[in-house]
């Protein structure tokens, strides 16, 4: 009789012993090592919530790399190169004309820009001729507005030239 | 630090438009022809006063003139 009662209590104790490991959260499930990247232009969606490993951004406050579980932030982007390291380890590079990147708390990254193209779409000749033209205006005696616009163009073109071979 | 374009009286919108235009113009022939169409704006407006339509003007041109005036101040 006594041994029977012992067996019953052991039987009752068992479910809780088994349920404990299920409730424990492992590191692998709690920390997803992917960022959900959305890279969108007004006329095109390049990435739509795609899982990637890392994104390097040309923020106005300096170059920055974004991994999963990054601190939520909003960054203004300079015209520059965005590097996307995909899950397989392949790297994609896009030149964006400037916009904003928003890092959300759940490892979501949204990048919005006006224009964005892969590097192979740029022509080194077109960049060179535009630099010459913009320099002429920037050093000329035009209105303050024309000079300021030429300086923006120069800034974009020089960044482009550093990347396009 | 204030950006140079801001000190010159340009708006952020104008700055972005110029940067985008420059990027479009730096493309190779085929993507450039497809992209350049996006830079065009053909909005026109006219001011109506006491039931009469004033002169029809291009919005882009009027914007440019207003920006130039703001830059001189």
What does this structure look like?
The complex is a heterodimer of chains A (165) and B (73). The radius of gyration of chain A is 27 Å and the shape is elongated. Chain A is of the alpha+beta class and 165 residues long. The model of chain A has no long low-confidence stretch (mean pLDDT 84). Chain A has 2 domains: 31-120, ATP Synthase, domain 1; 123-163, no CATH class. In chain A, a hairpin with a 2-residue loop joins β1 (35-41) and β2 (44-59). The N and C termini of chain A lie far apart (88 Å). In chain A, strands 1, 2, 3, 4, 5, 6, 7, 8 and 9 form a 9-stranded mixed sheet that branches. Helices cover 37% and strands 37% of the residues of chain A. Chain A contains 4 helices and 9 strands, in the order ααβββββββββαα. Chain B is mostly helical. Chain B has 2 domains: 1-40; 42-73, no CATH class. In chain B, 55% of the residues lie in helices and 11% in strands. Chain B is built from 4 helices and 4 strands. In chain B, the strands form 2 sheets. In chain B, strands 1-4 form a two-stranded antiparallel sheet. A two-stranded antiparallel sheet of chain B has the order 2-3. In chain B, a hairpin with a 2-residue loop joins β2 and β3. Chain B is flat. The chains are: A alpha+beta (165), B mainly alpha (73). At the A-B interface, α3 and α4 of A face α2, α3 and α4 of B. Chain B: Pfam families: ATP-synt_Eps (PF04627). Chain B: Belongs to the eukaryotic ATPase epsilon family. Chain B: InterPro entries: ATP_synth_F1_esu_mt, ATP_synth_F1_esu_sf_mt.
